[in-house]
């Protein structure tokens, strides 16, 4: 009987560290159901010049999960299509939805996003972007994202946002 109790205690101790690590991972990587709002992505875009047929600018983003956890991303946003003018620093903000059951956390938003884009500015400007992507094409950035910036610019076409985890 003592051997059985001792063996059970040893087995429990051996499993406990793994269970603790798994619980910690599940806090960092939240599993989500399909078509669920998972957070908000806010990006700062460097200013630059539109090159008539397209542009590419660096972005720095912050993803705030519904749980309150925050992740940072860097990357580029580009447009193919009409993009004429000069802009200062711009800010974009999207509501992030998943398009399939997904894990959120640990850089899950990294990947390539593609969609339609339009913006105009004379002094202060506004824009709209609808993007879908991620590594497994499992995230959607809410259509008609808010975009605010300054400059003299007119842009319409296909937007391409590339994100990578900033650690």
What would your notes on this structure say?
The protein is of the alpha+beta class and 167 residues long. 16% of the residues lie in helices and 65% in strands. It contains 1 helix and 8 strands. The chain has one helix at 2-28, and strands spanning 30-32, 37-45, 48-65, 70-98, 102-104, 111-133, 139-141, 146-165. Strands 2, 3, 4, 6, 7 and 8 form a 6-stranded antiparallel β-sheet that branches. The longest helix has 27 residues, at 2-28. It is elongated and about 40 Å long.
Blueprint (SSEs and pairs):
Elements: H1 2-28, E1 30-32, E2 37-45, E3 48-65, E4 70-98, E5 102-104, E6 111-133, E7 139-141, E8 146-165
Antiparallel strand pairs: 1-5, 2-3, 2-4, 3-4, 4-7, 4-8, 6-7, 6-8
Features:
single chain; 167 residues; alpha+beta; 8 strands; disordered N terminus
| pLDDT < 50 runs, ≥5 residues | 1-29
Radius of gyration, in Å, reads 21 Å
Number of strands: 8
Tell me, what's the shape? elongated
- Biggest sheet statistics: 6 strands, antiparallel
């Amino acid at each position: 009987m003592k051997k059985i109790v001792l063996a059970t205690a040893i087995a429990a101790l051996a499993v406990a560290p793994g269970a603790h690590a798994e619980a910690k991972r599940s806090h960092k990587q939240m599993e989500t159901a399909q078509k669920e709002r998972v957070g908000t992505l806010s990006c700062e875009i460097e200013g630059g010049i539109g090159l008539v047929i397209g542009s590419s600018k660096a972005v720095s983003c912050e993803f705030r999960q519904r749980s309150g956890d925050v992740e940072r991303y860097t990357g580029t946003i580009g447009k193919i299509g009409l993009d004429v003018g000069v802009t200062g620093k711009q800010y974009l903000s999207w509501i992030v939805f998943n398009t399939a059951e997904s894990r959120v956390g640990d850089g899950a938003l990294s990947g390539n996003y593609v969609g339609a884009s339009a913006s105009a500015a004379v002094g202060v400007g506004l824009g709209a972007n609808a993007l879908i992507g991620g590594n497994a094409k499992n995230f959607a950035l809410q259509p008609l994202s808010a975009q605010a910036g300054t400059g003299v610019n007119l842009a319409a076409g296909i937007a391409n946002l590339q994100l990578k985890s900033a650690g």
